[in-house]
Model the fold of this input.
Amino acid sequence: MAKNHKKEGILTIIIRYLMLTLGAGFAAIAIDLFLVPNTIIDGGLIGISLIINYMSGFSFGILVFIINLPFLFAGYKYIGKKFFLSSLYSIIMLAIFEWLFQYIESLPITTQPLLATVFGGLLLGAGVGIVIRNSGALDGTEILGILLLRNIPFSVGEFVMFINVFIFSWAGFVLGWEQAMFSILTYYIASRAIDAIIQGFDDTKAAMVISNEYEEISDALSDRLGRGVTKLKGTGGYLAQEKEVLYVVFTRLEVAKFKSIVLDIDPNAFITIMDTQEAHGGKFNKTANH
Done:
């Protein structure tokens, strides 16, 4: 029996495409106002397009569109209609913004390579991150990896790394090794900005506690930290004894208070604290008792 999937409303679609436009705009600003004037590139197909642009003078906007298009169409059945259309729209908007920026006389914003690297990387990462968050992409490198590596024992991540090593090496020979090093730094900054946009800025933590005083600790965490506590059943691997395991989620600002509450009750409690990318649902919220 076919499943009923809730369709996106018109307002949701409009907002998504506005965000895709914003993301493409940020990326174009980063490329045209920061990177290109300082002969700095990014990784992936955008990087390849920039190198060809430097070598030939051919329009970057047209290049990034032409180079990405075959991979989008070839990977259609793997990425789905929504991702395909969002990516196609984003790349078209990037090309349009690139064309418009040709007529801005105030370019560039800075001629200092380090400033261009930092702020260009941040803006580019923000733009790409916004596009990815809204079901699109500005670079088909990962799609290319999916297509090529179906029968090869490499992960998409490893493929992307190999591609970028080649791109930055190529940049070293074409643009100079100093520019290649600035480009690697730009790629790193952009990658961190992408992660921040996709995952959010809230560093949520999850912790597990094993203690004979689990009841008192559970009550104290609920009362003093204001967080819900889940009790799990565990079995020790060495003595095969059953143990109660407490599981609780909180923000990074509450780590010290969490440890203080637990260790005040049981100084020998076993605690593990882990990073989590996202937490929502249930009774979890960003505020608690402080």
Observations:
- Residues 10-199 form one domain.
